[in-house]
Amino acid sequence: DAIDWLDENGIRMKVEIKDKATHVEITKADLTDGDELPGAGMILKDSSGRIVDQWVSGEEPHVLRGTLLAGETYTLEETAPPSGYAYAEAVTFTVETDGSIQKVEMSDRPTQVEITKTDIADGAELPGAHLVLSDAAGNVIDQWISGDTPHRLTAVLEAGKKYRLTETAPPSGYAYSEEVEFQVSMDGQIDRVFMEDKKTEVYVKKTDGNTGELLSGAVLRLEEENGNLVCEWVTDVTPRLLEGNLDAGKTYLLKEIKAPEGYEKGDDIRFTVPEDGEPLWLDMKNFRLPKKDV
What we know:
Elements: E1 2-6, E2 12-16, E3 23-30, E4 41-46, E5 51-56, E6 62-65, E7 73-80, E8 91-94, E9 101-108, E10 112-119, E11 130-135, E12 140-145, E13 151-154, E14 162-169, E15 180-183, E16 190-197, E17 201-208, E18 219-224, E19 229-234, E20 240-243, E21 251-258, E22 269-272, E23 280-286
Parallel strand pairs: 3-9, 10-16, 17-23
Antiparallel strand pairs: 1-2, 3-6, 4-5, 4-7, 7-8, 10-13, 11-12, 11-14, 14-15, 17-20, 18-19, 18-21, 21-22
């Protein structure tokens, strides 16, 4: 715009008035280090909800020069965060009226997931489990062997998506756990995922084949399929509990080395330990020796 007039001497005077363009720089940053964060879908709306601009963040701030109205209020929203980051809250700002460079920042925090493998009995961290993490399509995202501390995944999983945790091999003496499905939080809070294992349980009874009475005095031997000794014991009038001694899904052989006095030896029992941790009961029966003719 221009204003002109005649001064007192009749000379025409003219003044041009130039407005300074608004200048807004929008930064999408990593909350942890403040660096520019590429790959975020961004949208800018005015106070009526009309879309003014939309873009995908890059290595440099997004600059709007002469686009926004001074004194007006706008809202910045994230439509899709970069992979491994959570959604940020919307940012509302009012454009400066003096034309100064205005900086607007929206920060994303990385997704954070902690996966804990524990003993169901005491909640203690359980090392030695082989674990696989897959997405909803079955693609393997990560695999590891559990240790003494939780397994942490930072900026690896996508906000709002579902994942499946599978145990492919439990620690020795433990059963397989059921799969655990979980969804990553949208807001970047720490998601804690727990998978519990319980010890294998095998009960061994030595009984009279006719009466069902528990028998003491038998010497029993438990072997692996290759003949390696697992344990050996003398029976009493209570069942023998083997808790956490045997591996889930593995086959063993129970033998009687010596029968109780007056009884024949029982038949060998070949068995496989349940993978689901359900207790297994074995009953080795003995029958009395035939009476000798006098």
